[in-house]
From TrEMBL:
Residues 1-18 form the signal peptide. Its main location: membrane. InterPro entries: Beta-barrel_TonB_sf (IPR036942), CarboxyPept-like_regulatory (IPR008969), Plug_dom (IPR012910), Plug_dom_sf (IPR037066), TonB-dep_rcpt-like (IPR039426). It is found in: Cell outer membrane. This is TonB-dependent receptor plug domain-containing protein. Residues 118-217 form the TonB-dependent receptor plug domain. Keywords: Cell outer membrane, Membrane, Signal, Transmembrane, Transmembrane beta strand, Transport. The keyword Cell cycle does not apply. It is a multi-pass membrane protein. Coiled coil: none annotated.
Amino acid sequence: MQRLLTCLALLVSVSLSAQTTISGYLTDAASGEPLLNATVLDVPSGKGAIANTYGFYSLTLPASSDTAVLRYSYLGYRNQEISLRLTGDESRNVQLSASADLQEIVVTSDRGERIEQQTQMSRTEVPVAQIKRIPALLGEVDILKTLQLLPGVQSGGEGATGLYVRGGSPGQNLVLLDGVPIYNVSHLLGIFSVFNADAVRSVALTKGGFPARYGGRLSSVLEINMKEGNLNEWEGEGSIGLISSKLTLSGPLQKGKTSILVSGRRTYADFIAKPIIKSAAAEEETDIDLSLYFYDLNAKLQHKINDEHRVFLSFYNGADVFGTEIEDRFETFGAGTDWGNLVTSARWNWEIDPKLFMNTTATYSRYDINIDASQDDGRETFEARYLSGIYDFGGKVDSDYIPNPDHYVRFGAGWTNHTYRPGAVSINATTGGEVDIDTLVGSQDDYGNEFQAYIEDDFRLGALKINAGLHASAFAVDDEFYTSLQPRLGLRYLLKNDLSLKGSFSTMQQYINLLTSESLSLPTDLWVPSTGRVKPQQSWQVATGVAKTIDNKFEISVEAYYKQMKNVVSFREGASFIRGVEDAWEDNVTQGDGEAYGLELFVQKKEGRFTGWLGYTLSWNWRQFDEINNGERFPFRYDRRHDLSVVGNYDLSDKVWVSGAFVYGTGNAVSLPTFGYQTAQRPDVPIREISSEIGFQEVGSSKNSFRMSNYHRLDVSISFRKEKKWGTRTWVVGAYNAYWHRNPYFLTAGEVTDCSSGGGCERRRRVREISILPIIPSVAYQFKF
């Protein structure tokens, strides 16, 4: 195995001349956590390397170099310099310490690869420490809501966590938790995300210019990596808020070798509401049992076998539980909706040699939905249940080969087995007589096997850096076998004034489809495969832009993009997830084309007492289906011409800081009826008098031809931090929608009567915008020990 991998890597190397390689891991001195994207620079030669996701780095220097002065650096940490006499390959693990004058709340400039030096474009990494400082709804820190503040990313609506990236839909985002796809990212009907920031180590979003190692979705890749766990000492952190509390514990089982991390979060609306509801119901001789909460549980175990081998086990389980049971003297009635994720992985890191690193991962994930209703009056019983879900297991191997500082080669392959449950309805009923019902409808599962392989090289030719690669994928389902070759190319040309010109081209293919409502992030969303009738989704995207760092404080980037999509999936008009008894789910969907293009501006200040960013997007987003809107092209519901976000954090002192976030966006596109006709049932009544009566049929206009009012909101917070003997505590006081702007959430249609001074009256239709989130104050108590 080792010989095979070494031979494969040598095929892509450009030089086998005598060289010296220094390799190892870059970690946090206090916790042992890997420092991904930390940098090492040989000062005399100017050659450098960057640590990968697992903290591994490899720097190869020419044989002519007999000494090296290595400078190790990372965001918010002290630089460390080491002088070496080069006599051969050397393993050097380095631990960096946080700056002595750096409090956790301060964000300083990254001394790593600057934005104009990077080949990759359309990618943003947001430090978790910065995410925790941004004002949050009800004080609940939310990773996905922070990402919505980036250019090119939009939310699905007021308070929602859905991500609509460069004209795509949520089902076109590949969300990876420790490298494992997670299918449902929302709690509480999309208001909160499933990611507990206290358990997260890094967050990165790629919107375009996808390197070859990514595949399977059209619009974005969101990588969320959990903390590995403290190898040196036990530590903990948590918070108590208005709707939830959380606690994270981490520490060594064997110091320096084995660690464990456990993190949990739960809401407690049910604890508060239960006694109130029970007391009110008791007066009516009724008993009400309420379930209303969500929870998340993260766990991780790591073990260092030796310097070459490390193993990790990751676990996540989270669910929403909404239900009620009502019992009185005559009958019992119950109804509820439960949904949640289970994600597990086993990972093995192997440093095969100083230039070759391999990561092998085995994965399992599950997403379930369960909707039920029941009634029992002592004589007759009725129970109905709707079940749906998707189950995956698979494995992948990813390798990094770094022959020299001018080449970074990645290659790998993977396989995933999918089991789809598009939905089954079971009904059980007893009537007390001879007629009983026990039936199951739509229980047939669908199965698919997805394969992928890739190779890419990030290399330098003078001032030009190139990332070129090829992603190959295949999908087997029923009697169909789909294949795809997807070329990827990223370019960066560095001008003399440290201004870089960038460009990228990528093609993507997606074999899994999300059937969803355009208006809400519902747990009834269905994941279904491509089949003989439903073709794989495809896209290609081209982007170009410029990037520059000014005074080591401001990062500025401007990008323009154009994306075309084929075979995007939508419900047919009038269809939904509740399909007919004899219908296959394919009968309720249609496929069409999509087009998105726009311009993005991103300005970020990463150093000093004031930090933050400004993001602006100008974009267009279209859809076209033969069976929708008479085949005419129409704006996608989340077509948003202008989208602006301004985020700022200011340190009044090392103990007090204020934060704010302002967002503005063009209103969502909506469909409204603009005319109607009188039916034969009421031929004698004028239309204006029966617009809401039986016998009048409303007919819609062109799809999404109207706009809701523009959206804007200001969130603010102030934090007070204090050192205690046992650790630190922080009080956070904030407000969501601070100036109480009534942003529209949905529309309702009704009638009003207008009467003139002459005594005549006329009824007319009126559409009202309904707002659901006013100003919402919050307070949270955070602690760390």
